[in-house]
């Protein structure tokens, strides 16, 4: 059910003064990593908005699920990383065509999912084109669903070009969360990313296109911030084009009131047919992405748990149950049953308390380790906050940073599954080792001798001694065994 | 004087439908078609045909 989380802020002391401080600073004063902010460093009304939103709260993403409905296929700009012959590569894993829905079909799908997936807390429209440009369909979908499931959070994602035209409606419709994709704040940089835009009845190219887009994005961001709507800024990190520039983007969007900044790696592959894919523009390596994110730690809160999900994704981040809810599988008539979701919320309320105490115990255990290095640890987990995945079955690893100062969630890294029905593929293992670049240690539920030796040869230690422990407890125990005195596991 | 949509290239995103000032574009089955009786190629209305200007796929809204 639940996966792992960083709970730093939940364990930190809360004072009214801190709350006032974070309120006056627009919620951007967090000293903790990522969007793991809890009540400790957020104003109560902001915490209320983000606590159940898996994309805005790293903590929530282990408990709550989102779904996107692909009702907005039309777009008003062309991005070099996107090929709309298929889908927006930014919002969905490319190469898989999503099922476009009419607003009526979307309502049916949302109700069917809400009845089956009690974790559902957020309905988003992320294209596959642009939710603000294809506004009539976005609006019709949200208006109808708000009548059927009043407590579902509404969320949309846009390139920002048409955003200023709809901000008042967005506010009226109680859309709490808006994501704007901002890849540059300098139109010169934009010319390498946007070949054209469609605005005011004509197509604009070159510097004009990027200048208009930039002005509209800034206008939209400021209008949303003025209305206290939480804005997440997504930026696609494109090595050699905007990687260094994203430092400036971070500074600007922070100053204009963005709540969260999510830097995503460019997805680029010739098979996707995108301009960048076809011209050999590479995406950043995991450590390059981390290096950039680390330089921005003092900026707007960074989101590190983004899975760059599809425009029709369903489920917890990191899983996609979209294929279970395709149109042909939906009943013709659906009626909403709120009981499952209500029961699940009660369970989560209890779980969250338990997690907090385990995380606090792990951090406390590290406090008396003296001088020790800061290391990255990769965890194989299938959820529940525990080290409970077989190494060979892992499709992604959750990466944590550990130092005497504590343990914090850094990112996830996708890998090709190494083990298939008992057989491991050496070629795949090489790929896994490559993806574990920079990792010192791997904790998993079980691993065979052969991959263990290969990892060791690559300089990565691995252990299944901490199988089924809480993740933080396992990391703390291993770290302390390496660098400090023996400690008792807290689980 | 009218434009047409090359159905094999069309992504069915629908952007042209709501940009068309003449309401000449509509869904016919699974594809979008331009009604040649209504299409003016946007002459006298805009600098260039709106469907072609907004279409994400090059050479998909072309002269019939």
Automatic annotation (TrEMBL), chain A:
Keyword Metal-binding set for record: yes
Positions of the Radical SAM core domain: 61-312
Pfam families (UniProt xref): Nitro_FeMo-Co, Radical_SAM
Keywords linked to the UniProt accession: 4Fe-4S, Iron, Iron-sulfur, Lyase, Metal-binding, Nitrogen fixation, S-adenosyl-L-methionine
Known pathway: Cofactor biosynthesis; Fe-Mo cofactor biosynthesis
Necessary cofactors: [4Fe-4S] cluster
Taxonomic superkingdom: Bacteria
InterPro entries: Aldolase_TIM (IPR013785), Di-Nase_FeMo-co_biosynth (IPR003731), DiNase_FeMo-co_biosyn_sf (IPR036105), MoaA_NifB_PqqE_Fe-S-bd_CS (IPR000385), Nase_CF_NifB (IPR005980), NifB_C (IPR034165), rSAM (IPR007197), rSAM_sf (IPR058240)
Any GO molecular function: lyase activity
Residues of the signal peptide: none
Family according to the record: Belongs to the radical SAM superfamily. NifB family.
Role summary: Involved in the biosynthesis of the iron-molybdenum cofactor (FeMo-co or M-cluster) found in the dinitrogenase enzyme of the nitrogenase complex in nitrogen-fixing microorganisms. NifB catalyzes the crucial step of radical SAM-dependent carbide insertion that occurs concomitant with the insertion of a 9th sulfur and the rearrangement/coupling of two [4Fe-4S] clusters into a [8Fe-9S-C] cluster, the precursor to the M-cluster.
Protein name in the entry: FeMo cofactor biosynthesis protein NifB
Automatic annotation (TrEMBL), chain B:
Gene3D superfamilies with a match to the protein in the record: 3.30.70.20
Pfam families, sorted: Fer4_7
Annotated 4Fe-4S ferredoxin-type domain residues: 1-30
InterPro entries associated with the record: 4Fe4S_Fe-S-bd, 4Fe4S_Fe_S_CS
Cofactors, names only: [4Fe-4S] cluster
A GO term for molecular function: 4 iron, 4 sulfur cluster binding
UniProt-recorded name of the protein: 4Fe-4S dicluster domain-containing protein
